[in-house]
Specification:
This protein is α/β, with parallel strands linked by helices and 560 residues long. It folds into three domains: 9-209 and 372-453, Metallo-beta-lactamase, Chain A; 214-361, Metallo-hydrolase/oxidoreductase (Rossmann fold, 3-Layer(aba) Sandwich); 469-559, Ubiquitin-like (UB roll), CATH 3.10.20. Strands 8-7-6-3-2-1-21-22 form an eight-stranded mixed beta sheet. A seven-stranded mixed beta sheet has the order 9-10-11-12-13-19-20. Strand 19, helix 13 (399-411) and strand 20 form a beta-alpha-beta unit. Helix 6 packs parallel to helix 7 (241-253) and helix 15 packs across helix 17. The relative contact order is 0.11.
């Protein structure tokens, strides 16, 4: 039955974070189809890889909701991870809605907005932990959860058509190092009242059991660090402030002072202290001073656990860090997981470290020095038992994660499941949950500090050049269209061997370009575009014969 155009509906629309891990961008709409009011939950980024040369940040494309910007009531941020807040400074000018965040997240937001030149332009509403926000028909309660960053929140979103539990990122940590334990009582009460739908984290749906407690990690790190001699470096995610706290206390318990290495470590430490964390800890040692400490009395807490090229640990491994040097007799502890896609970068980093004589410790060979911040299957089952939703909406996962999560929810007797892709608009009420529309859900790339479309010409050419190389052709013509110099051909990224040297190949390409020019009529020779096109086509075909590749060919015509 078609929906009445004047009838209120409650819809969920993911524009990022569904069918992928990262770049979370979720919308809830209420009202009739022609006059919905919207809230946004999270506005995050993902990161570039080998398929996006020169692109570090990838943003969700807000095209759909940008057209309804006047109807956005607010942007609610669940926590401060980059895949939940990293796109705010880039996309807020297109949305211009007030922001709502808890104190720790708000502190980091202000820094991002300041870096983005938006200081003083954006309304940031600081919501206390466990606080409530009312935005039009949406009554939103922040639910205290546990995760791998301070102040993670789930959201209870009450509407006239039912309540949605949006979990954000979470786990059930019975003994969190920082912050309060998961508010089981609130979630159970929510279940008693009736939860229409639960939009839930799917990251570890394939992992049996439980994710483990940060308190156990603290104990494991304290034992390991106590056994190590020489200088010690520990790599972890800077955003995991609880892990930072664990490492620092483990170091101090073993007579070591701590030096933070990497900008994000200092930024997170400042944010943590702004909300009253890191109490009772000694002051950090400056990088320039740390080298004067005895080797057995210093610990470096570093960024770069994923092998990032410009991060602190990579520079240390290459011996190019201005203050920190590790070598034979020193140790490096990786208290982090390997993010899929980073395997090669991490392996190369660890090999460079090993080559310098540094002893490596990872969770693979020392279980317990890292735990996930996301729920495993037993934790998911407990959350479903507490909330008892009528509809399960898996999110924060690749396609295989979402489908497995939906199957798991059905096994737990959840009456309805929907596993949307980015861009799938799900009607939650009235009636049965179903996908009712498909909206644009593309990506934007931050390329040299400029936001461009994912199909932009610059990146397309860069990909082409990366795989096929670049050839340039230059020719000078007189007023009658006769060659006075050239064609000169140069190549970047083209292979060569002794049997067919590159110089010889380039000479052959130049001859092909000259023949192509000779075949043009006098009228065409007077047109730069015609000359460029003819020579480019001839050279590209010749490259195909020589190398089996069609490089980017750039042709320059000079008129004398």
């Amino acid at each position: 039955m078609a929906a009445n155009k004047t009838q209120d509906e409650l819809v969920f629309l993911p524009l990022g974070g569904s069918n992928e891990i990262g770049m979370n961008f979720n919308l809830y709409g209420f009202g009739p189809p022609h006059a919905r009011k919207w809230i946004i939950v999270d506005l995050g980024v993902t990161f570039g890889d080998l398929t996006t040369p020169g692109v570090d940040l990838i943003l969700p494309d807000p095209e759909f909701i940008e057209e309804h910007a006047d109807d956005i009531l607010g942007i609610v941020l669940t926590h401060a991870h980059e895949d939940h807040i990293g796109a705010v400074a880039w996309l807020w000018p297109r949305l211009r809605a007030p922001l709502y965040a808890t104190p720790f997240t708000a502190f980091l937001l202000r820094e991002k907005l300041r870096e983005g030149g938006l200081e003083g332009q954006v309304e940031i509403n600081v919501v206390p932990l466990g606080g409530r926000v009312t935005l039009g028909p949406f009554e939103i309660d922040l639910i205290t959860l546990t995760h791998s960053i301070p102040e993670p929140n789930g959201l209870s979103i009450r509407t006239p058509l039912g309540t949605v539990l949006h979990t954000g990122d979470w786990k059930i940590d019975p003994d969190p190092v920082l912050g309060e334990a998961t508010d089981e009582t609130f979630i159970r009460q929510l279940g008693d009242e009736g939860v229409l739908a639960m939009v839930c984290d799917s990251t570890n749906v394939f992992v049996e059991g439980e994710s483990g407690s940060e308190a156990d990690v603290r104990d494991a790190l304290a034992r390991l660090i106590g056994e190590l001699k020489g200088k010690v470096a520990v790599a972890c995610f800077a955003s995991n402030v609880a892990r930072m706290d664990s490492v620092i206390r483990a170091a101090e318990a073993n007579g070591r002072r701590v030096c933070l290495v990497g900008r994000s470590m200092h930024r997170m430490a400042a944010a943590a202290r702004s909300v009253g964390l890191f109490k009772g800890l000694k002051d950090f040692v400056n990088e320039s001073e740390a080298g004067y400490f005895p080797a057995d009395s210093i610990l470096y807490l570093c960024t770069g656990s994923q092998g990032e090229a410009r991060a602190a640990l990579s520079r240390i491994s290459e011996g190019t860090h201005p203050h920190v040097n590790l070598g034979k007799g020193d140790s490096c502890v990786f208290s982090s997981r390997v993010i899929p896609g980073n395997e090669i970068a991490i392996r190369n980093l660890q090999n460079r470290m090993a080559d310098r004589g540094v002893r490596l410790y990872t969770d693979n060979d020392h279980p317990g020095i890292h735990v996930s911040g996301h729920p495993c299957r037993d934790e998911l089952a407990r959350m479903y038992a507490w909330a008892r939703p009528q509809i399960a909406i898996p999110t924060h996962g690749e396609r295989r994660h979402l489908l497995e999560h939906a199957a798991f929810a059905r096994d737990l007797q959840v009456p309805q499941t929907v596993a949307p892709r980015n861009g799938d608009m799900v009607r939650l009420a009235p009636g049965r949950a179903e996908i009712i529309d498909e909206t644009p859900a593309g990506r934007l790339y931050v390329d040299a500090n400029v936001v461009v479309s994912e199909n932009g010409e610059a990146l397309r050419e860069r990909r082409h050049a990366a795989h096929n190389g670049v050839v340039t052709v230059a020719v000078a013509l007189d007023s009658r269209g006769k060659i006075t110099s050239g064609p000169q051909v140069r190549a970047i990224g083209m292979p060569t061997d002794d049997d067919y040297p590159l110089d010889e190949a380039l000479d052959d390409l130049a001859e092909e370009a000259e023949r192509a020019l000779s075949r043009l009529s006098g009228a065409d020779r007077d047109l730069d575009q015609a000359v460029e096109t003819a020579m480019s086509r001839a050279v590209k075909k010749a490259c195909q014969r020589v190398w089996g590749r069609r490089p980017v060919v750039e042709t320059t015509v000079l008129r004398l």
